[in-house]
């Protein structure tokens, strides 16, 4: 029997990159997976691919994590169709790097909404059920930028430091409840994340950058490690970065 057979995981931001890879890895461990993001067609393609490779159940729920009702509905639909939520991966995020002097205030707001409020809505929707069942695992995807601040990452880092603070507080508050918390901090991973950057100064800076980034699956394996430990083991923080990233 696989380690996570008959469990159910919700993954936000599952329509690409790290979230997609986490969904596939968890499915390979036997978990039923619920894929959430805004691009439902891409989610459906990914679900179909998982269905070809595994025999778990998959669900697609179009979700904007900045909308509290959407995230509540995501958890409620999952419970109706698949029963309890065992794992909730708060992965959806945006990294709209910019220099403060260029004043991209709408992008700052978007990062706060997706990266912080989105995670809070995930906790709000998933935690009560986990506390009732005395078990569960919440994974929050922060970043190396939640440990260090780089030029142009000031606001993004602020949101990822906030994610890490949430993880640290949850870990302490929930330690006697059976609900485990893992903060995952990736370094540079080759995904669509940088495609949405609009600050020309940042784009120019990136032209001179050469580094072998990680693949999404490198992070998915870290998540799998955390959720497949025995019940008494709480993996609180995993940092994974490319060899060449300082
Ligand atoms: P991608 O851009 O490939 O994935 C981001 C995901 O977030 C997409 O599935 C996107 O789906 C989803 N998303 C964005 N906004 C919303 C929203 N409002 N509601 C629901 N879903 C949303 O990037 P990554 O896979 O790299 O990013 C995943 C996480 O990893 C992020 O939290 C990111 O900050 C973090 N991270 C990434 C690193 C990297 O180098 N790639 C490094 C450190 C951390 P859709 O557009 O369909 O809604």
UniProtKB/TrEMBL annotation:
GO terms for molecular function: oxidoreductase activity. Its EC number is 1.-.-.-. InterPro entries: NAD(P)-bd_dom_sf (IPR036291), SDR_fam (IPR002347). It holds the Pfam family adh_short. Keywords: Oxidoreductase. Belongs to the short-chain dehydrogenases/reductases (SDR) family. This is SDR family oxidoreductase. It comes from Thalassobacillus hwangdonensis. The lineage of its organism: Bacteria, Bacillati, Bacillota, Bacilli, Bacillales.
């Amino acid at each position: 029997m696989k380690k996570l057979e008959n469990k159910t995981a919700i993954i936000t931001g599952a329509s690409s990159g790290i979230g997609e890879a986490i969904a596939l890895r968890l499915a390979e461990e036997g978990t039923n997976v619920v894929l959430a993001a805004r691009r439902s067609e891409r989610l459906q393609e990914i679900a179909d691919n998982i269905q070809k490779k595994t025999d778990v159940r998959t669900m697609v729920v179009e979700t904007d994590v900045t909308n509290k009702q959407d995230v509540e509905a995501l958890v409620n639909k999952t419970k109706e169709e698949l029963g309890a939520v065992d794992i909730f991966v708060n992965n959806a995020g945006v990294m709209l790097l910019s220099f403060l002097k260029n004043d991209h205030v709408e992008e700052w707001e978007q990062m706060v909404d997706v990266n912080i409020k989105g995670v809070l809505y995930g906790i709000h929707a998933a935690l009560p059920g986990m506390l009732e069942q005395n078990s569960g695992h919440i994974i929050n995807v922060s970043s190396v930028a939640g440990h260090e601040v780089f030029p142009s990452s000031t606001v993004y880092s602020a949101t990822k430091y906030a994610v890490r603070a949430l993880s640290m507080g949850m870990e302490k508050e929930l330690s006697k409840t059976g609900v485990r918390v893992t903060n995952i901090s990736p370094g540079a991973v080759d995904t669509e994340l940088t495609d949405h950057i609009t600050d020309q100064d940042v784009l120019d800076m990136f032209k001179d950058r050469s580094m072998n980034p990680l693949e999404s699956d490198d992070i998915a394996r870290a998540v799998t490690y955390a959720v497949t430990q025995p019940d008494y083991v709480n993996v609180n923080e995993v940092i994974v970065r490319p060899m060449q990233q300082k």
